[in-house]
Design goal:
single chain; alpha+beta; 489 residues; 3-stranded antiparallel β-sheet
Length: 489
């Protein structure tokens, strides 16, 4: 449920700024060292493959000065141990009031009054308010409830596949990934059908940075106003016709004084935007990874009992929620030997942590046998994603259904033609054209082996099979096998 660019290689031979001299003031304290020039976290090359940059940054140390497209400078945490510590550091708070003037001048992409009305949800709260608000939503996403709803989610996935499974070619974003997570979310939170039909997926773009001088700003503000009116209409509907669902409980909580109006609107905003888009993106990143590793794709298609473990590894290997949202120190503080001014933003790179070779052997390899696999794709600490169980189920069902019903799945375009979304915090592609073999017998809605959690003797560790003739995504690319680093995402 959590919401979400890499340096441009065209600017210099290396995406990194020159190493800091680490010269310090008279105190000799490394925390007082002069900060280096910030590393730019944006650009087409970075979005396509940020992992070489993350490897360089990890080698240099755990904390780095970075710059985002908006011009905001922040402190990026890259290593696994450093990430875990930062995500549980009680000194780091998330409420936007902690941000200093330099951060506030560039980071608030929403205009007022919308920023104050829609940005006080769980991701921007600290205890004890965060604790009370989070308690109101946890039951809806409890693992037991998710498991009970699996048959319904499977029906939704198959209904989407029925529309294009016999075509032999499809854009898996437009035809499936853009729709399945929203349908699941609507079921889980109690979104009425008439409101589900009204929802405009473009509203999800309001979390992507569009500065005040950007030519796209008017369209951005129009989307924001449209979403805000949608939320207002939804609240009125749930107040008039309440049900035994999460949205009704939140509206009742507002009426009972447990939530302010701004908190209610913000929580609905977070559910609608952050509750679906990251799963859409994670389906696409997982599929891109599998298409890059055809032996793993074939093994997973043949042995669906591998899905639970495979999904965990796909989450680790390339997480859709690439960076966390802002955190702030209330006073000047030291973080792993680096002095961080009060109110400067601190951001954790979950993707960099998940590829840290000090925590994961052959960290760049895709290894479905990896165990244990304590990845940080859903965060860590009190802000661990409350919808993690739901996201896992969605990914297992989505990938299992696609691989079962679209045999011989392969990319339809060269990888260079894939367009990665420009969102600052997220990874995913806008379109994913594929081809496959249409066959009536594959339209069965009974997934053989679905739900099994056992191990399999699938030959993932064996030498990979040659890529399908003409497969553009695997041309001139070394396919990794278990224990052997392959091409980094």
């Amino acid at each position: 449920m959590n919401p979400i660019d890499s340096p441009s290689a065209a600017d210099s031979p290396s995406p990194l700024a020159p190493p800091s001299t680490n010269s310090s003031t008279d105190t000799g304290n490394p925390a007082d060292a002069i900060p280096p020039e910030p590393v730019e976290l944006y650009g087409t090359d970075y979005k396509r493959d940020p992992y070489p940059l993350y490897a360089e940054l990890r080698d240099r140390g755990p904390v780095h000065r970075v710059r985002f497209p908006s011009g905001v400078c922040a402190w990026l945490v890259t290593g696994y141990d450093a990430a875990q510590q930062a995500l549980t550091d009680p000194r780091l708070g998330k409420h936007h009031s902690r941000g200093n003037a330099a951060w506030r001048a560039r980071a608030s992409i929403m205009p007022e009054p919308q920023h104050s009305q829609l940005q006080v949800h769980l991701l921007h709260q600290d205890p004890p308010r965060h604790t009370a608000m989070r308690r109101m939503i946890t039951d809806a996403f409890a693992p037991q409830r998710v498991e009970a709803l699996r048959p319904r989610f499977q029906e939704m996935a198959d209904a989407l596949l029925d529309r294009f499974a016999d075509a032999g070619r499809a854009d898996l974003v437009a035809e499936f990934a853009a729709h399945f997570p929203f349908r699941v979310l609507a079921e889980v939170i109690g979104l009425p059908e008439e409101f589900a039909v009204r929802f405009d997926r473009d509203w999800g773009k309001v979390v992507q940075p569009v500065g005040p001088a950007d030519p796209a700003r008017p369209a951005y503000e129009a989307r924001l106003r449209g979403l805000q009116q949608y939320i207002a209409d939804l609240v009125v509907h749930k107040r008039r016709a309440p049900g035994a669902d999460l949205l009704s409980r939140l509206v009742a909580g507002r009426d009972a004084g447990e939530l302010t109006q701004e908190e209610l609107d913000s929580m609905i905003f977070q559910l609608l935007v952050a509750g679906q888009e990251p799963v859409t993106n994670q389906i696409t990143t997982a599929l891109v990874t599998l298409l890059r590793h055809p032996a793993h794709l074939a093994a997973l298609a043949a042995h669906p009992e591998l899905l639970p473990r495979a999904v965990e590894e796909l989450l680790r290997h390339d997480a859709a929620f690439e960076l966390t949202t802002w955190r702030f120190f209330a006073e000047d503080s030291e973080l792993h030997g680096t002095r961080i001014p009060a109110g400067d933003s601190v951001i954790v790179s979950l993707c960099a942590a998940n590829r840290d070779p000090r925590r994961f052997a052959d960290a760049d390899a895709l290894d479905f046998d990896r165990s244990p696999n304590p990845h940080l794709a859903f965060g860590h600490g009190i802000h661990f994603c409350p919808g993690a169980a739901l996201a896992r189920a969605e990914l297992q069902i989505a990938l299992g259904t696609l691989l079962r019903r679209l045999p011989d799945l392969r990319p339809a375009v060269p990888e260079e033609e894939l367009s990665w979304i420009p969102a600052v915090l997220a990874r995913g592609v806008n379109h994913l054209p594929v081809t496959y073999t249409p066959h009536a017998s594959h339209a069965s809605h009974t997934p053989e082996g679905a739900g099994a959690h056992g191990r399999s003797s699938a030959p993932i560790g064996a030498a990979p099979q040659p890529a399908a003739p003409g497969c553009p995504m695997t041309a001139a690319r070394t396919t990794g096998t278990t224990g052997t680093p392959g091409a980094a995402c």
